[in-house]
Design a protein that fits this description.
The complex is a heterodimer of chains A (216) and B (215). Chain A is an alpha/beta fold. Chain A is 15% helix and 24% strand. Chain A has a single domain, classed as Glutaconate Coenzyme A-transferase. The radius of gyration of chain A is 17 Å and the shape is globular. Chain B is globular, with a radius of gyration of 17 Å. Chain B has six helices and twelve strands. In chain B, the strands form two sheets. In chain B, strands 1, 2, 3, 4, 5, 9, 10, 11 and 12 form a nine-stranded mixed β-sheet that branches. A three-stranded antiparallel β-sheet of chain B has the order 6-8-7. The chains are: A alpha/beta (216), B alpha/beta (215).
């Protein structure tokens, strides 16, 4: 199983029927492919859609039915559309049960940096700051390291997306949570050892006596 | 509301004007108005929009043509030309969180001086802004935005100027329609009064100043 699939499958296990969920671009998008059978999720696209469905079959795309990247999507039965003020009212107003976003760095307290690399990449924060500040639950989907460098760090060198700590970080090596504001190893991926995870993590990790393996 | 020829609608917009433009990654952007702005070669525009789309589409056409002096947007990442012009100092770019941008526009159109949002507290977005505590929670004071012109794209416009929108092409359109001195609308279809039922009107007719006529 490749890294992306491990991450997406594990995050999909966080989903419960009836949740309103926003998936960011990149790895988070793939979570939609692994929703457990019988679990019905309302996926939100922040450009103004609840009930976002899969990419339509060839020739079935509609130019005004798109996701937040401007790409064609379908709408599931029960879908609704609305303007951007409503869309971010849903996000900030405590109506969004979960957001899944990509990450560049997460610090030892769970604070996320994911929107710019000064001098290199300045795409704009889009909806990321609102999503992290406003969603009931924030889950980060990212590779554990980038070019051999740890992404779960003591202190972020990149600008924060929000000071609000995330709830869960899921990588191809581990699941990490932040109870009491401290990075804590919750699960390891199949065939990954606790030592593996520690060696690839710069932030100090709280390691409980027993660390279960991810159930994929 | 007045019906107006495309050329005459854009001729009203002077160089240096501020424009709010509906659309999200070029979905729901009034492309005919954009094309005519490029054709008439308006200069030094300030554009307030969610994003600068991609080269050759929506607001991206204004970027490619070098018509924009300043842009307020939440995302420019899918348009490398915006980033190049920003790095070269040709355009000023103010990046604003998307939910804050739409609320600042809403405030401008709804007679409010600004809004208080938790988004951006403690980040670079806070620089130069007032932090206000309400009931123990921190918020940033984000001021209202208005513009000289709103360029709006609707799905249906009736003969009086009532508007409805299509699916995800709604996005910023009904909000920017409230926040500009002059509101210019293009529509996929111009229809008789009554085709849009009162319950389905999103932007009421008195908000619209000009409706671009079919060619």
């Amino acid at each position: 199983m490749d890294a992306q699939t491990i991450i997406a499958k594990r995050i999909a296990r966080e989903l419960r029927s009836g949740m309103l969920v926003n998936l960011g671009i990149g790895i988070p998008t793939f979570v939609a492919n692994h929703v457990p059978v019988g679990v019905n999720i309302f996926f939100q696209s922040e450009n103004g859609l609840i009930g976002t469905g899969p990419i339509p079959e060839e020739g079935m795309a509609h130019p005004t039915l798109t996701d937040a990247a401007g790409q064609p999507v379908s709408a599931l039965p029960g879908a609704s559309t609305f303007d951007s003020a409503m869309s971010f009212g849903l996000i900030r107003g405590g109506h969004l049960d979960m957001t899944v976003l990509g990450g560049l760095q997460v610090d030892a307290h769970g604070r996320l940096a994911n929107w710019m690399i000064p001098g290199k990449m300045v795409p704009g924060m889009g909806g990321a700051m609102d999503l992290v500040s406003g969603a009931k639950r924030v889950v980060v989907a990212m590779q554990h390291t980038a070019k051999g460098k740890a992404k779960i760090v003591k202190q972020c060198s990149l600008p924060f997306t929000s000071l609000r700590p995330v709830d869960l970080v899921v990588t191809e090596l581990a699941v990490i949570a932040f109870p009491g504001g401290r990075a804590t190893l919750v699960e390891t991926a199949p065939s990954v050892t606790v030592e593996n995870v520690i060696a690839n993590t710069e932030a100090e990790l709280v390691v409980p006596e027993t660390v279960p393996q991810m159930n994929l | 509301m007045k019906a107006i020829a495309l050329q005459d609608a854009v001729a009203m917009i002077p160089d240096g004007a501020s424009l709010m433009v509906g659309g999200f990654m070029a979905v729901g952007t009034p492309e005919r108005l954009i094309d005519e702005l490029v054709r008439q070669g308006k200069r030094n525009l300030t554009v307030i929009a969610n994003d600068t789309a991609m080269p050759g589409r929506g607001v991206g056409k204004l970027i490619s043509a070098g018509l924009i002096g300043r842009v307020l947007a939440s995302h420019i990442g899918l348009n490398p030309e915006t980033q190049q012009q920003m790095m070269a100092g040709k355009i000023a770019v103010d990046l604003v969180p998307q939910g804050t941008l739409i609320e600042r526009i809403r405030a401008g159109g709804f007679g409010l001086g600004g809004i208080l949002t938790p988004t951006g507290v403690g980040t670079v977005v806070e620089e130069g802004k007032r932090r206000i505590e309400v009931d123990g929670k921190n918020y940033l004071l984000e001021t209202a935005l208005r513009a000289d012109f709103a360029l709006v794209h609707a799905f249906l416009a009736d003969y009086l100027g009532n508007l409805s929108y299509a699916l995800t092409a709604r996005n910023f359109n009904p909000v920017v329609a409230m926040a500009a001195d002059t509101v210019i609308v293009s529509a996929d279809h111009i229809v008789p009064v009554g085709v849009i039922a009162p319950d389905h009107v999103v932007t009421p007719a008195p908000i619209v100043d000009y409706l671009v006529a079919n060619e």
